[in-house]
Each structure stands twice: as C-alpha cells, then as structure tokens.
Amino acid sequence: MNISIILAAGEGTRMKSKLPKVLHKVCGKPILQYVIDASKGANVEKNVVVVGYGGDITKEYFKEEPIIFKTQPIGEGIPYGTGYAVMQAIDHIDDNSTITILYGDTPLITESTINKLINYHNKSGFQATVLTAIFEEPTGYGRIIREDSGNILKIVEQKDASEEEKKIKEINSGIYCFDGKLLKYALSKIDNNNAQNEYYITDVIGILKEEGHRVGAYIIEDSTEIHGVNSRVQLSFSEKIMKDRINERHMENGVTIIDPSNTYIEDTVKIGRDTIIYPGVSLEGSTEIGEDCIIRNNSRIVNSIISSNVIIESSTIEDSQVGENTHIGPFAHLRPNSNIGENVKIGNFVEVKNSVIKDNTKAGHLAYIGDADVGHDVNIGCGVIFVNYNGKEKFRTTVGDNSFIGSNSNLVAPVKVEARGYVAAGSTIVEEVPEGALSIARAAQVNKIGWVEKKDLIKDK
Fold it and tell me: What does the record give as the active site (predicted)?
C-alpha cells in the first residue's frame, strides 16, 4: 500500500499573513491542493496531512477531500522538526506499506515525479530512498554523499560539510520514500539532542544506514519541482512556473495563446482546440471554453461555460453561460447567473445579470438587463434599462419572442412584454404590453413658440 505523509504544519512567518501558508494560492489553487492532487495522481491510496498553525482553517478548506488530518501540537516546549511532524502520523504507517514524505509548501511537485520515486524505491529494493536534485549553486542544502555502489553513504548539512563536500552539487530535496515498518522503527530511535532541540527526518536515514539497510537516491529531472514557498517572493516564483506549465499544456492541446507571458489561465480551466487567446486575458475557476472561440485582449472569465465559435472582446463574464456563435463586447459585463443563447449579440457597455436571453437576440450598446427572461429574436435598443429594484426587493421582467424595445426605454418590473410587442423609444413601461401591440408611454411633446425670447434667455453677443 502506498501512503503519503504531507507535512503542512509550518506557520510561514515570512509570508506575513493571517492565512496558513499552505492555503495561499498558485494559479487559483491552494499550494497544498497541488501536493495532494499530485500524490493522489501517483496512485497513493492514503494521504495523511500533518497540520499545525491554522490547522482548523486548513481542515475546513479541505473537508471534502478524502484525506486524513493529524494535528501537530503547538506551544512552548514542543520539540518540532520534520521528524516530530512525521511522528504525528505514526498510527497510519502500515508495516507493509511504502511511505512517501512530502511537503505541503511545494506546489510544483508532479504526480510523475512521485510515481517515479515510488517505483524506483520498490523496484531497486531500497529500504529508504531520497529524492535528490542537481543544483549548480547548492549553498544552504544538505549534500548527498554516495558510496562507490552509487547508494547513499550519508547526508551532510551545509554547516557540517568539508570544503570538498561543499563542492558536491547533488542535494537533498527533503522528499523521501521509506518502508513503513523500518520508518516506524527508526522514528523511535531518533532524538532531539541538537542545537535546535528538534527531531529531524534526516536522522532516520542515518539510523537505517548505520544498521546496514540500503538507502538509495533518485535524481529529479526538473529541480524546480522541489521549490518550496516560504515568502511572497517564492510564491511569485511558483506562480510563474505553474502559469507557464498550464499555458504550455493548452498550447500542446491545440489552443493558440498569442502571448503566454501576458495570459493568466488557472489550473482548473478547460479550453477547446483552435480557440485563440489574446494578451491580457484571465480565465479563472471552473471556466470551460469551447472550440474555435476568440477571446480578445483584457477579457476576464470566471466560473463560466463558453460554447464554441464565440467571440468575446474586452469583457467580464462571471458564473454564466454563453451559447454558440454569440458575440460579447467590447466592454460588456455578464454578471452571475446570466444564460445567453446562440447567435446573440451583447455589445458595447451592456450589463446582464441573473437573466436568460434566448437565441438571435441583440442588445447592441449601453443597456442594463437585470432579472429578466428575454425571448428569441428580440431587439433591445440603446440605453434600455430593466428597472428591477425598488430599494428593498428585486423583480423580474419578461420580454416575449420577436419583440422590439426602443432606445432609452425603461421596463419597470414586474412587467411583461408579450411576443411581437413593440415599445416606442423613450417609453417607461409599467403595465403589460399585449402581443403585437405598440406601447407608447411618454409625455406628449409641447412646443411653446417664442418662450426663449419671453424669458430673455438669449443674450446679445
């Protein structure tokens, strides 16, 4: 059985945040989520997460995940250290299991690397395996000292390394595989007799080696995967690497991204092939984009479903759906729960909220459509306002198929315009418009000849 122990108890003081470090996000997902997903993707059957600072918040966030939480005590006199953190999960270490030690602040680790590490450990017959990396500048890291056979002889920390050992470029990532029974045994043997008064997981390696067990090392292919997040600067580094990975994945799947360095796509977004993404676009949350779409500059789409052959120009779409062959923008705003049909035009500075707009309807410019049910083949003129709020409650407006709403009209909800109803420009509609009727709801024009001269409003120049 494969079991992971994910250490996520650190406070992350350098983050200078009220939020637990592992809940800070990279491309829309908490950094701990990436580690959990990578572990599950590597066919690890049981994932144990050790939390400490902000543990209740972390547990609440991941309450739907099939993971086990263990809490590391916090307070004065607690010894701490990586070894102490692993001890908190000892009840979940099975004798016949392979245990992988991971860190909750390494969002760049991949399921491929975890899977390769576990397979290497098991197939090579090691009792412990260290994931290592080659760094051109290894200062600050523990060095890997190998035997002639290639197995690990020991791990030497920077402060304890000789000048010759400091030249070694292979470093300890802190990620390990252990045989479950031997890990439990070695944890019972380590002590905190050191300057920091902490229990270190590296001591487990030393104990197993001294007792004649084989300790191997697997060199990671991409050393950026072991990059940890302890500050906002390091968070930014992880964000950049993850953003590049996500953009490359979409491009490899047939999406054109004009300028990947200026395009933000979160990990959970899906995009169909032959869609073109222009610079400045932000795609977030559970957004799904169909095939053959064009998403032009400076558009933001959040938790929305965009069907195929849609053009979106410099617009914001939130928690909404857009049908095929529809054109949105420029500068349109679809607020939550907007359901836009096929071949619809939502144009310049049009705002839609909590509304259904059916096929072939057009709202070209400068309109507000809120809490409405609009039929198909409707024309909504410039400056039309769906007046949905009386200061206390929201009300709905219904506009039937093939209707025409003239420019600068107000539809005061609750109100209904029946099919083929026409509203004259400048009208304020407060009563039902019958099917096929023309409704004119504006004051009669009165021209008072000579009024300006009588009021002496024109001055001689």
Answer: 365 (proton acceptor)
Considering just the CA atoms, what is the radius of gyration of the chain in Å? Answer: 32
pLDDT in tens, the chain (461 residues): 999 999 999 888 999 999 999 999 999 999 999 999 999 999 999 999 999 989 999 999 999 999 999 999 887 767 788 999 999 999 999 999 999 999 999 999 999 999 999 999 999 999 999 999 999 999 988 899 999 888 998 888 888 889 999 999 999 999 999 999 999 999 999 988 877 788 889 899 999 999 999 999 999 999 999 999 999 999 999 999 999 999 999 999 999 999 999 999 999 999 999 999 999 999 999 999 999 999 999 999 999 999 999 999 999 999 999 999 999 999 999 999 999 999 999 999 999 999 999 999 999 999 999 999 999 999 999 999 999 999 999 999 999 999 999 999 999 999 999 999 999 999 999 999 999 999 999 988 899 998 888 877 666 54
Contact 121, 24 (CB under 8 A): no
SS3 of 367-404? CEEECEEECCCCEECCCCEEECECCCCECCEEECCCCE
CB 318 within 8 A of CB 302: yes
Distances (CA, A) of 378 to 141, 417, 432: 67, 11, 17
| 266-to-59, 106, 269 alpha-carbon distances in Å | 23, 17, 6
Q: Is position 82 annotated in a ligand binding site?
A: yes
CA–CA separation, 358 vs 98, rounded Å? Answer: 56
Does the annotation flag 243 for ligand binding? Answer: no
Tokens encoding 293: 């779409």
315-439: CATH topology is UDP N-Acetylglucosamine Acyltransferase; domain 1 (2.160.10)
Q: Among residues 227, 250, 327, 365, which one is catalytic?
A: 365
376, 358 contact by CB (below 8 A)? yes
Sequence ranges of the chain with CATH classification 2.160.10.10: 315-439
Residue 365 a catalytic site member: yes
State yes or no: 435 annotated in a binding site. Answer: no
**Residues in a beta bridge with 444:** none
Q: Say how far apart CA 375 and CA 417 lie, in whole Å.
A: 10
Q: Determine whether the annotation assigns residue 437 to a binding site.
A: no
368 is in an annotated binding site: yes
